């Protein structure tokens, strides 16, 4: 693997022990995956941020490191809203440990935006090389923006943030970004919303595993693309997909699809995911809400009062730029929280059954929160929360 003189200097320990260890980790990863070189990155997004997922050992490891990120780097959602954790009913012991994790990352120069939607906060462009961790963010970066990132583990993304480079293999290479199967959707998608596309992703992720699908027969907007990708990354391991005539690489390239396995998806396969189980709480914002999604929730809640707990999750940056909209949502009794989400926070564990409008949350809530999950359109979610 080619390393430049600066890399050799870091590997020799001349830039400190943490940078040496971080580069050793990247070189080891590169060797395992056959990378010929490291590639400079524009930004990093680091998972392993919730105390619920990393625990004491993760915190001790972070606290032992001593270096600074050299590229813009943002944290994944943590286990609670940093400033409103008491309002979420978070246990003070958990909050103390979570604050220690956040402080450790801050010391390493990681920005505390705590979001799975860094693309709403930092400019990310077609062709940019990145080292992002969270699966829905990785899918969005690769598929919707046309940037290039593998799905990094937390330590790999942190190492890339501190070194400013990542091993150049997998989705950083043109040859690894071509479609591997075709998904033909046979449904009238003209009235589909985010939840329908999330359900499509939930269904298709189980069929494709880690292959790169090429969709035909759908015309999703960016929020709907976000929903498909998040769900496919949850039920499968899809880090890149293409949509004919929609996503940038599908528009730019003429792929040879002949000979690829083709799977048809019918409306009935999507409709059967929309069950009618009773729910105790409603959670929206997986992945974190865009400004348009927040506005839609506010519109649907105007003049209503919630009768069930309704949680909405978004990044602090998006919340701060949309305070009037957030005020409208909270006037209904719903709560809009930054920094965290329905899966990585313990807050949803108190509810046996949760309604969501996300295919990813439909997959993760039963495993991570212990309860049942029901998917519904945004209109149905608001209806159930206010009936
Ligand atoms: Fe984001 Fe949490 Fe969903 S990290 S994609 S809101 S599970």
How does this model look, in words?
The chain is of the alpha/beta class and 387 residues long. The protein has three domains: 5-174, 2-Layer Sandwich (Aconitase, domain 3), CATH 3.30.499; 178-271, no CATH class; 281-386, Aconitase, domain 3 (2-Layer Sandwich), CATH 3.30.499. The chain contains 15 helices and 14 strands. The chain has helices at 5-11, 17-32, 51-63, 92-107, 135-145, 154-163, 194-208, 222-235, 248-252, 267-271, 291-301, 316-320, 323-331, 359-368, 378-386; strands at residues 38-40, 43-46, 73-75, 130-132, 165-167, 181-186, 213-216, 242-243, 261-266, 281-284, 310-313, 335-337, 353-356, 372-375. The protein has a five-stranded parallel sheet, sandwiched between helices. It has a four-stranded parallel sheet with strand order 8-7-6-9. It has a three-stranded parallel sheet with strand order 3-2-4. β10, α11 and β11 (310-313) form a beta-alpha-beta unit. α11 (291-301) runs parallel beside α13. The longest helix has 16 residues, at 17-32. 51% of the residues are buried. FE3-S4 cluster binds at residues 77, 116, 134, 136, 230, 286-288, 313, 341, 343-344, 360, 364.
């Amino acid at each position: 693997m080619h390393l430049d003189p600066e890399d050799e200097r870091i590997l020799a320990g001349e830039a400190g022990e943490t940078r040496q260890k971080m580069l050793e980790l990247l070189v080891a990863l590169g060797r395992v995956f056959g990378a010929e070189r490291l590639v400079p990155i524009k930004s990093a997004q680091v998972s392993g941020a919730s105390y619920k997922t990393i625990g004491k050992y993760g915190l001790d490891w972070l606290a032992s490191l001593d270096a600074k990120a050299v590229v813009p780097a943002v944290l994944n959602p943590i286990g609670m809203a940093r400033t409103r954790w008491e309002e979420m009913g978070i246990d003070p012991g958990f909050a103390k440990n979570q604050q220690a994790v956040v402080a450790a990352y801050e010391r390493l120069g990681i920005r505390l935006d705590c979001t799975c939607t860094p693309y709403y906060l930092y400019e990310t462009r077609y062709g940019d090389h990145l080292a992002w961790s969270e699966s829905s963010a990785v899918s969005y970066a690769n598929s919707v923006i046309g940037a290039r990132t593998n799905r990094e583990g937390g330590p790999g993304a942190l190492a890339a943030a501190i070194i400013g480079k990542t091993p150049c293999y997998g989705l950083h290479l043109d040859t690894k970004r071509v479609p591997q199967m075709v998904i033909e959707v046979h449904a009238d998608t003209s009235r589909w919303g985010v939840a329908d596309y999330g359900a499509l992703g939930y269904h298709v992720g189980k069929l494709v595993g880690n292959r790169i699908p090429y969709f035909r027969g759908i015309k999703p907007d960016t929020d709907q693309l976000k929903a498909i990708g998040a769900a496919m990354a949850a039920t499968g391991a899809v880090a890149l997909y293409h949509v004919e005539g929609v996503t940038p690489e599908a528009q730019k390239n003429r792929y040879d699809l002949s000979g690829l396995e083709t799977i048809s998806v019918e409306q009935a396969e999507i409709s059967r995911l929309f069950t009618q189980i009773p729910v105790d709480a409603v959670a929206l914002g997986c992945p974190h809400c865009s400004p348009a999604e927040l506005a839609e929730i506010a519109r649907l809640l105007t003049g209503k009062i919630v009768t069930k707990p309704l949680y909405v999750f978004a990044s602090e940056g998006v919340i701060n730029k949309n305070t009037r909209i957030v005020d409208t949502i909270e006037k209904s009794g719903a709560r809009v929280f930054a920094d965290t989400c329905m899966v990585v926070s313990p807050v949803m564990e108190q509810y046996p059954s949760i309604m969501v409008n996300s295919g990813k949350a439909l997959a993760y809530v039963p495993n991570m929160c212990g309860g049942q999950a029901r998917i519904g359109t945004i209109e149905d979610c608001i209806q159930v929360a206010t009936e």
